[in-house]
Specification:
alpha+beta; globular; six-stranded mixed β-sheet; single chain; 31% strand
Length: 145
């Protein structure tokens, strides 16, 4: 998913978008993220290329912000959609100055904060999930005995 359009002859437009300290030149959507996108963000069938194009537009329009200040793996789109992403350096690709370019790998879409209130505080949400799963496991082991 690259954006290398040039509007005038012999002018250079960067083919990366800056997000924090990363220069993103490519977006990869995992199959898990596609399934979560269809279930939690947009109902119905969604093509990976359309999701990547939408993410690229969100990046270009500065609609993606970090969820927490210090963490670099959870992001918000339009202050509503929670996304988990990883970054990897693109081998042998740099910008004009020599800075490394990155690939943004969308791991999953957690959902919309407007629909799932628990996403407003991810740390307490994950601790609740761990606790509820642990309690389910404890109950299941009691039943087996």
């Amino acid at each position: 998913m690259r954006d290398k359009g040039m509007e005038r002859f012999s002018t250079y437009e960067p083919f990366y978008v800056v997000l924090g300290d990363k220069r993103i030149a490519d977006i990869v959507i995992t199959s898990h993220a596609r399934i979560r996108y269809m279930g939690r963000v947009q109902d119905g069938e969604a093509d990976i290329n359309k999701i990547a194009a939408w993410m690229w537009e969100c990046l270009k329009q500065n609609r993606i912000t970090p969820y927490y200040r210090n963490e670099q793996d959870v992001y918000l789109i339009d202050e509503d959609i929670v996304v988990v992403a990883e970054f990897s350096k693109l081998e042998s690709e740099v910008d004009l100055i020599g800075n490394a370019l990155h690939k943004m790998i969308i791991v999953t879409y957690l959902g919309k904060m407007s629909e799932t209130i628990e996403l407003r505080d991810l740390k307490s949400y994950y601790s609740w999930l761990r606790h509820s799963r642990r309690m389910t496991l404890v109950k299941n082991t009691r039943k087996r005995k």
